[in-house]
Amino acid sequence: MDIDLARAWVQAIAAAVGQHKDHLTQLDSAIGDADHGVNMQRGFSAVTTALDGIEPDTVGALLVKTGTTLISSVGGASGPLYGGAFRAIGKMLDPTATTQQLAAALAAGLDSQNLGAAAPGDKTMIDAYTPALAAFQQQADAGSDLAAAALAAADAAEDGMCATTPMQARKGRASYLGARSIGHPDPGSASTALIFRALAETAAAR
Ligand code: ADP
Ligand code: MG
């Protein structure tokens, strides 16, 4: 991944979040407080504005800036969780960003989300991120290029999102609903799937 690709990825996330804002909010209205689409759009439009004005020297610096901006612009739980993940990913990518290094960086991003103390199966964004990372790592280990690794990750993230539907939430606002959280996909897993799909599409367009 180079700086242009990292910038294009973040722009593609912003576009996808804008396009799917109402859907994300609808998912959050079923089991949360109906702001996930608004939160994600606010965050990624702030990121677009922040990146417009600067020319970061490295992929890492660009992604750290993305994370810092998300943390400062998103009020909900997703802000620090995504912001912390982008910061952790960026910190692993100075100065280079091979597909293997990106796999390690994505793992650091998932680790950073431990701050939310969610485990797989708790019905959170972790349930999309964990299988996406596993698929990405497997492709990277097999010597696949970024486009192939990101495609496998995006497919796995979408499967992970679907798998949250029958889960009962144990973290975040949805957990307040207890068994009533069952039967709806987790909004954060849906936005995580958008983030990996944006990476796959950006890398494929190269
Ligand atoms: P809020 O819940 O504060 O309204 P959002 O609606 O933007 O924030 O984000 C909700 C999403 O955040 C959930 O769908 C879930 O995926 C994720 N989430 C919430 N709490 C946690 C947590 N402790 N760990 C991981 N992810 C979490
Ligand atoms: Mg919410």
Polypeptide structure, described:
With 206 residues, the protein is mainly α. The protein is built from nine helices and no strands. It has one domain: Alpha Horseshoe (Serine Threonine Protein Phosphatase 5, Tetratricopeptide repeat), CATH 1.25.40.340. 68% of the residues lie in helices and 0% in strands. It starts with a helix and ends with a helix. Adenosine-5'-diphosphate binds at residues 28, 32-33, 35-36, 39, 76-78, 81, 113, 116-118, 124-126, 171-173, 186-189.
Kindly state the percentage of residues in helix.
55-70%
- Coarse morphology: globular
- Per CATH, the class reads Mainly Alpha
In percent, how much strand structure appears in the residues? under 5%
From N to C, what is the helix and strand string? HHHHHHHHH
Q: Helix/strand/pairing class, anyone?
A: mainly alpha
| Largest sheet: number of strands, sense, barrel closure | none
* CA radius of gyration: 16 Å
Number of strands: 0
Cα distance spanning the termini: 11 Å
CATH superfamily: DhaL domain
CATH fold-type name: Serine Threonine Protein Phosphatase 5, Tetratricopeptide repeat
**What ligands are attached or bound here?**
adenosine-5'-diphosphate, magnesium ion
Oligomer: single chain
Give average pLDDT, whole number.
Answer: 97
